[in-house]
Amino acid sequence: MVTEIEWFEEPTLRDPVAVLAFEGWNDAADAASRALYYLMERHDETSIAKLDLEPYVNYQVTRPLVSIDRTVREIHWPATGFFGLTLPEHVHDLVLVLGEEPHHHWRGFCADVISVLRRLGVGRAVALGAFVGQIPHTLPVPIFGSSDDPDFALRMGIHASTYEGPTGITGVMTNTMAVEGLEVVGLWAGLPHYLAGNPSPTGTRALLFALGDVIGWRFDVEALNIEVAGYEAQVRSAVADSGDLVDYVKRLEQDSESRAISQGDGRRLVEDIERFLRNP
User: What is the rounded distance in angstroms from the CA atom of residue 191 to the CA atom of residue 60?
Assistant: First the structure.
């Protein structure tokens, strides 16, 4: 099956840096993908190309969408989008890569994405991701990073990941890019597991700060700050109403590796706080 890449425009870009995020397993609480959506909403972005995901998705898992424009019925098929974004007075343009984690043929998918980036002159890339763990919401969002540059973690003052185990498309993509000779950085936000069922503007903001540090830019997060304030107020209220959650968060604050509550209790607490957040 031949992969189709549809080109809309091939702009001239200034020393472009790619920023990638994939919805799904790599994107806890939608923190990574929402960072790219936030940038596109607040900057003039250009649709450059899209990669048809026909060879890469299971349509029983990710289904196409239908829309009706007047009397015309249209099917929208899953795709990975490539968008150009210019930051005023910055030396780099950005190429945003946004889509869902594919279900099949990851090596072919990575090769297709890299082929588009090379055609656009991209030599450096930053991949964003988010995961959940025993992390209290009361502390700053930890950012874990990895890079083919051994001095990266030290320079950026971030936690270097020592994770070993199953990985998602973000981990595979960064590894493939490094093997192919691109300079690539992976940035991951660690989020509380008991808030995993809800979008995290706090995680999104932390990733934007980290991305800005890497590329030398300060993103305007004023609109996101308002969202964060409302979200964190809800979380504080939800936690305050549950003595079990208050105690649990205190234990996490005291020691990130403290004894976890039982799986059953943890599930109940997650359900309690998610129910609150779904009904503000």
Answer: 29
Per-residue model confidence as pLDDT tens digits over 119-154: 999 999 999 999 988 888 988 898 888 876 666 666
What are the φ and ψ backbone dihedral angles of 95, each rounded to 5 degrees?
Answer: -115, 110
Instruction: Say how many C-beta atoms besides its own lie within 10 A of residue 277's C-beta.
Output: 17
Among residues of the chain, what percentage have pLDDT more than 90? 58
The CA-CA-CA angle for residues 271, 274, 276, to 5°, reads 110
pLDDT at 179: 92
pLDDT of 270 strictly over 70: no
User: Higher pLDDT residue, 272 or 177?
Assistant: 177
Q: What residues contact residue 162 under an 8 Å CB cut-off, 6+ apart?
A: none
Name, in order, each residue with C-beta under 8 angstroms of 244's C-beta and a sequence gap of 6 or more.
261, 265, 269
Instruction: Report how far apart the first and last C-alpha atoms of the chain are (Å, whole number).
Output: 47
CB-facing half-sphere around the CA of 207: CA atoms within 13 A:
34
The closest of 141, 253, 259 to 205, measured between CA atoms, is 141
What is the pLDDT averaged over residues 163-177?
89
**How far is residue 227 CA from its own chain's centroid?**
17
Write down the mean pLDDT value for the chain. 86
Q: Residues 155, 159, 162, CA angle at the centre, nearest 5°?
A: 120
- CA 85 to CA 220: how far, in whole Å? 14
Strands 183-192 and 124-133, by their bridges, are parallel
Q: Output the CA–CA distances (angstroms, integers) from residue 244 to 261, 263, 268, in the order listed.
A: 10, 14, 10
Contact 276, 236 (CB under 8 A): no
